[in-house]
């Protein structure tokens, strides 16, 4: 199922989309995000998305402007994704996968009597998101891999190094950012990075800071 057949630029994307506020969830263009949907309002959101263009916007609540628990204030930038996998479970949940299309900026939130939130959004600032592998030639791949190796060794993790070696730079950087265990602000900084090179630099810097914090004064990273 092609995600980009109908979405070749900002003008092709819907201006009003449902949004799913979720702290720590980072979706990036062409990235894959699995979701386990069980809350009634988000089940309704998926139902409506499947009846229309299958688009859902992932966005993080802003921890510096918390707002009401049931209706938290949101960051201004999120990422729209299309439902590319969908399954129902026997206990009423949906297991879906979103494939990232483009980042968006929230222009306004739409007052709605429905159970979930919708926003009027603009993709104009993120035209680069529609260009697969844009900026790969500027990525410090060795720096990314070194940060990953150090993090893996420090945390005694196992990774598929063969798969990593085969991954193009865009897929590698975006997948590592999406899977990273870092906080809301760090994830938002990765999302809002102006280009792939900057996103990779943020990933390296955040990983190094985490290693320093976890290693103490004898850390070789210092």
Distinctive features:
222 residues; five-stranded mixed β-barrel; alpha+beta; disordered C terminus
Account of the 3D structure:
This protein is α+β, with helices and mostly antiparallel strands. Helix content is 32%, strand content 25%. The protein has six helices and eight strands. It has helices spanning 40-51, 141-154, 161-166, 169-179, 184-192, 196-215; strands at 16-21, 32-37, 55-59, 67-68, 71-72, 77-88, 94-110, 117-122. The strands form two sheets. It has a five-stranded mixed β-barrel. Strands 4-5 form a two-stranded antiparallel sheet. The longest helix has 20 residues, at 196-215.
In a few lines, what is going on in this structure?
It contains six helices and eight strands, in the order ββαββββββααααα. By secondary structure, the protein is of the alpha+beta class.
Helix content, binned percent = 25-40%
Bulk shape: globular
Ranges where pLDDT stays below 50 over 5 or more residues in a row are 216-222
Taken in chain order, the helices and strands follow as EEHEEEEEEHHHHH
Terminus-to-terminus distance? 46 Å
Mean pLDDT across residues: 92
Number of helices: 6
How many strands, which pairing sense, and closed or not: the largest β-sheet?
5 strands, mixed, barrel
Question: β content, as a range?
Answer: 25-35%
